[in-house]
Design the sequence.
């Protein structure tokens, strides 16, 4: 892919994904313009300064609520490509600030598309959608019956069980204001293609992680706490629902996917980006402990006596009609043999060095949650996408980041994936 001298406008350039994308495109010779909000103190966003690219980006001041500012950004950058990554992207905040989320993610996306249309610009646009748009994904008859009992109705009803791996035609059942706002943006991008001919492409990226991920996101919640524990700055790990499964990719893979979609994707189309695997929150914690040099020998609950030796032992037996590497404990959780709930109290993780307590905190459970995300990435792989990083690579990068005392953060803002 030839990015040399291409004009690229990135909304959300100072965010986690935006800063990684900017660095990679700069390395490939692109001219990167970053849309940023005015900062009264004049400071450079941390994600930008950490990557040493603050002098290489041309900044354009505008917010997504500012149609005039976006139009100016388009005039300034004359973009060949626009990556729309800016959003209120923290799911728990969307529950407490639903109007803000709708305004930024929904109307903000509309403002961007309308500015491109009114200016008569002709860039390729890539929308950073999300796997959260799929929401409730049915993985078993037992889960389906449990959801029906809890909610009374599921719409759309599944036409197949399991609905995993998740392909682009899966039903959308968004379960948070954030997810709903992204569905709106997803449909807007496609509508502006069909109605006005804008070359919009939708990426539904599943969870992506790496060094510098915001402290409020679950993988950083986990790795920062484990680093605090390793450095004897806390005596336990506290978390919400460890049964949730996510398709976690390395941020470098997702950035590569965005670039492939911009160059090779079909306007008006939708593409999943993911890792071709699913991993539990619990396994992410256990992998983080091992990344600190403490092999996990056994886990057991504090109140109910559930136990398992060698929980991270690799398991490759097929599930959902596909074979992917997973941990022993994840296999048992996915096939319904084992789970961990509030009445278990927590989990003790036995290592050769010490026993590490994981405490469950009811306050960190969401009002409504997505039980499993696992992507079918066949479509984007046909364009040349490949998964280069394993779950241990992602964990190790985050643990290395938090081993630096300057990067270890307060853990009072912890929440779930």
Sequence:
């Amino acid at each position: 892919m030839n990015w040399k001298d291409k004009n690229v406008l990135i909304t959300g350039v100072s965010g986690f994904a935006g800063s990684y994308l900017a660095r990679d495109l700069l390395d490939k010779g692109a001219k990167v313009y970053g849309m940023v909000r005015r900062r009264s103190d004049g400071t450079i966003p941390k994600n930008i300064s950490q990557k040493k690219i603050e002098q290489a980006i041309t900044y354009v001041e505008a917010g997504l609520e500012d149609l005039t500012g976006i139009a100016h950004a388009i005039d300034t950058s004359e973009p060949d490509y626009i990556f729309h990554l800016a959003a209120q992207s923290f799911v728990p905040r969307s529950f407490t600030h639903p109007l803000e989320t709708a305004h930024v993610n929904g109307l903000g996306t509309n403002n961007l598309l309308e500015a491109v249309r009114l200016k008569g610009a002709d860039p390729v646009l890539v929308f950073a959608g999300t796997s959260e748009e799929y929401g409730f994904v049915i993985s078993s008859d037992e889960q389906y019956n449990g959801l029906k009992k809890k909610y009374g109705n599921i719409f759309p009803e599944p036409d197949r069980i399991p609905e995993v791996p998740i392909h682009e035609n899966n039903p959308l059942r968004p379960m948070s204001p954030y997810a709903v706002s992204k569905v709106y943006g997803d449909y807007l991008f496609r509508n502006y293609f069909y109605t006005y001919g804008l070359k919009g492409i939708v990426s539904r990226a599943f969870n992506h992680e790496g060094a510098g991920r915001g402290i409020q996101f679950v993988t950083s919640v986990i790795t920062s706490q484990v680093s605090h524990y390793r450095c004897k700055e806390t005596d336990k790990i506290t978390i919400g629902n460890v049964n949730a499964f996510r398709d976690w990719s390395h941020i470098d893979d997702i950035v590569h996917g965005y670039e492939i979609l911009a160059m090779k994707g079909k306007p008006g189309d939708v593409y999943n980006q993911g890792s071709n695997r699913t991993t539990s929150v619990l396994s992410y914690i256990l992998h983080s402990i091992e990344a600190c040099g403490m092999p996990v020998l056994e886990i057991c609950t504090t109140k109910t006596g559930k136990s398992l030796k060698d929980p991270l032992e690799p398991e490759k037996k097929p599930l959902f009609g596909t074979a992917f590497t997973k941990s022993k404990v994840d296999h048992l959780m996915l096939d319904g043999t084992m789970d961990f709930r509030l009445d278990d109290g927590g989990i003790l993780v036995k290592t050769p060095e010490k026993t590490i307590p994981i405490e469950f905190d009811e306050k960190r459970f969401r009002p409504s949650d997505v039980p499993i995300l696992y992507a079918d990435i066949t479509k984007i792989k046909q364009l040349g996408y490949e998964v280069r990083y394993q779950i241990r690579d992602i964990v190790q990068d985050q643990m290395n980041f938090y081993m630096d005392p300057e990067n270890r953060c307060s853990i009072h803002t912890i929440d779930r994936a």
In short: The radius of gyration is 21 Å. Residues 410-417 have pLDDT under 50 and may be disordered. The domain at 7-214+247-279+373-394 is CATH 3.40.50.720 (Rossmann fold). Residues 98-119 form the longest helix (22 residues).
